[in-house]
Amino acid sequence: MLEASPKLQILKLTDLNMSSTKGNQIGQKWIQPKCVPECLLFHLETFVWTGYEWQRRDEKEVARYILRNTTSLKKATFSTKPIEPVKLKVFKKRREILNELASLGRASNPSDFVFESI
User: Fold this and answer.
1) Are 37 and 2 in contact (CB under 8 A)?
2) Where does the source fall among the domains of life (predicted)?
3) How many CA atoms lie within 13 A of 116 on its CB side?
């Protein structure tokens, strides 16, 4: 998709399975492209991911790839599902992962990152 959109400035990813249980999620394994798409190298300014599943390895790899290879990124927003009070240990792990994404070395100048619960 990214290779077919060389002038893409805004990328919005939405988890269509937000209401499903983890065992019923449908999806394909992400394979990193051999070459960085032109839109990431020169044009992408806004990256929004609604329903980001911070526990899924593939989603973490996609987020890392985009953040590391986007040179014009001005704002990145990750919206995650809220955590129930009984899962406070899980919250600590989620926070560590979000902090890791925010601290990644990026090709672009410092950009705004927004992490929110949906």
Assistant:
1) yes
2) Eukaryota
3) 9
